[in-house]
Amino acid sequence: MMHRREFLATTAGFALLGARRAFGAVAYDLVIKGGHVIDPASGVNAVRDVAIADGKIAAIAATIDGIDAQTVNAAGKYVIPGMIDIHSHAGDTAGGPALNVADGVTGYVDAGSRGADKVDAVVAEVKAGPQQGRVLINLGRTGLTPGGELQDLGKVDVALAREAIARHRDTIIGIKVRVSKNVAGNNDVEVVRRAKEAAAPFGIPIMVHMGQSVSPLSQVMALLTKGDVLTHLFAPPPEAIIDDAGNILPSVLDARKRGVWFDMGHGRGGHFRWDIAEKVLAAGFLPDTLSTDWTPGGRVSQFVDFPTVMSKLMLLGMTFEQVVACATINAARVFEAFREKGTLKVGAIADVALLETRNGEFEFLDNYDGKRVVRQKLSPAGTVLAGKWIPRTA
């Protein structure tokens, strides 16, 4: 039986809660007001307020009033889940993760910057960064090498890769392998086979950098299984994902049916050409995910940042809702580590990106100096990371 003091305390609590509801206010930490919320995971596409409490999404509604809450005016801006870049090299760059947060990237994967010899340094940088980051270890023990880290099979050590993965199992979530001629030479199919061998004991996927390989792409595709990722899907011949008539290769279609993911992987050297992207999209083959292949040099020389990559895909005909899905919920589904991200559903981690449309004259580049001039582009306008507001600075 409830004692009188307990009863009075309980009824007082109900009275306070009732008073807050009567005034339409609940205690939140942060309220994003009046933005156009787009969350493909929950089907929201409307002007809404977003409330955040204790680092989680607490409410989404037409109007939300918070008691003593920090308020962000998002009128005229898009409010989407924080973006996840599954192919980046931010972890190999001092300060790179923070630069990506400013662009609205609240989760990323450093995709093969380092191999077993030096992966400890990348793991340390990733763990020190402000947002969630994970690592794909390069199968070549030296990591990215200008002369090609997979040219010498003596440096493609499965046992060494496994040792590094076991040492950093909380951070390394897959293996990266590049099969272009200037990286792997005639070893392309063999290094993919070895990557699968190294990944097998851990049940982790591999990511294959495709394009300009010696062996037919079909031979590479035959080795990929559910959960693996093919990146640079807009790379031109030789060994593009389309034939000369613009048809998607049967081996590529078969791979998608069995659960292989296809990632844009923009980059800045041989990975993205306008005409190939147009043909692939015209064939109805949309990327599962967008990614930047981010490096500091690419950010400057070709303006390779996540909102710009989104803008390029919209220029090519994808809808805003489609590119947001690729950047958020689709990316969250690729790697288990990000499964709680990519959405603004109530209870989700409060990672949010604010984007705005800038008007002007903007020159977009592919990797081959192909230029397209546009009048609008997406630009970052602020980020919420685990419930904390990070305003955009110049």
If you had to describe this structure to a student in words, what would you say it looks like?
With 394 residues, the protein is α/β, with parallel strands linked by helices. The protein has a domain at 81-338: TIM Barrel, CATH 3.20.20. Helices cover 29% and strands 27% of the residues. It contains 13 helices and 17 strands. The protein has helices at 4-22, 96-102, 119-128, 158-167, 181-184, 188-199, 217-221, 250-257, 274-282, 296-301, 306-315, 320-327, 329-334, and strands at 25-26, 30-39, 44-53, 56-61, 65-66, 70-73, 78-81, 83-88, 105-111, 132-138, 172-178, 206-209, 229-231, 261-263, 352-365, 371-385, 388-391. Strands 2, 3, 4, 6, 7, 15, 16 and 17 form an eight-stranded mixed sheet that branches. Helix 4 (158-167) runs parallel beside helix 6 (188-199). It is globular.
What's the topology here?
Elements: H1 4-22, E1 25-26, E2 30-39, E3 44-53, E4 56-61, E5 65-66, E6 70-73, E7 78-81, E8 83-88, H2 96-102, E9 105-111, H3 119-128, E10 132-138, H4 158-167, E11 172-178, H5 181-184, H6 188-199, E12 206-209, H7 217-221, E13 229-231, H8 250-257, E14 261-263, H9 274-282, H10 296-301, H11 306-315, H12 320-327, H13 329-334, E15 352-365, E16 371-385, E17 388-391
Parallel strand pairs: 1-5, 2-6, 2-7, 8-9, 9-10, 10-11, 11-12, 12-13, 13-14
Antiparallel strand pairs: 2-3, 3-4, 7-15, 15-16, 16-17
Notable traits:
394 residues; alpha/beta; TIM Barrel; eight-stranded mixed β-sheet; seven-stranded parallel β-sheet; 13 helices; 17 strands; disordered N terminus
